[in-house]
Amino acid sequence: MLLRVALILALTALAACNGIRPAATSHEMLDEQTGSMVSTVDRALVFARERTDVAAHARDYATLVAVELDQSGKNNDFLLLYRWSTVDRRMSPPPDVAAGALQIVADGRTIDFAPLDRPPLDLSRRKELHLPEHGDVVARGYKVDVGTLRYIATSREVTLRMPQEKLDLPFTIFEDGRKSLGRFVQRAGAP
């Protein structure tokens, strides 16, 4: 793991000396609490659904972030989901923290995810983990495999559902991070 970090730093320094900017494929950081290397996509997938039933220009959002944890050479992939809204809490309370079932519908195929008891890593590094700058964010984590991430990244039509929420309407892509997810998958799938 230390060799990997040293190699990344050396290549970055060499590229900087030559005026070459490396392509953004992911953020990499060391989780100091666990000693794990954490890789994330450089751009999240952000889904939204209109909430014209409560206010003009109001939306519910779901930010989806792929992460890989390298724990002494053993890699595990996860999806982080940040559920948040611009709807006034008095009109629509935030989602229940205990209700976290997730469905991604990609090119007509429904993929069901059960939430982990808690997110798989410390979320204090807000920027690198694409945590929205919003006060009422509910964060969840889901175990995922590289094949499923690849399928999502290459699908033409992707929607997201939170079936345990009172309002079970689909979220559609608001900010498209599928290309970033594709680059992440290529790196994650490499030996």
Describe this structure in words.
- It is a single chain.
- The chain is an alpha+beta fold.
- A hairpin with a 2-residue loop joins strand 6 and strand 7 (109-113).
- It has three helices and ten strands.
- The model is unreliable at 1-25 (pLDDT under 50).
- Strands 1, 2, 3, 4, 5, 6, 7, 8, 9 and 10 form a ten-stranded antiparallel β-sheet that branches.
- It has helices at 2-17, 146-154, 178-188, and strands at 26-31, 36-41, 45-50, 59-71, 74-85, 102-106, 109-113, 138-144, 158-161, 171-175.
- It has one domain.
- The chain starts with a helix and ends with a helix.
- Helix 2 runs antiparallel to helix 3.
Quick description:
With 191 residues, the chain is an alpha+beta fold. It is 19% helix and 36% strand.
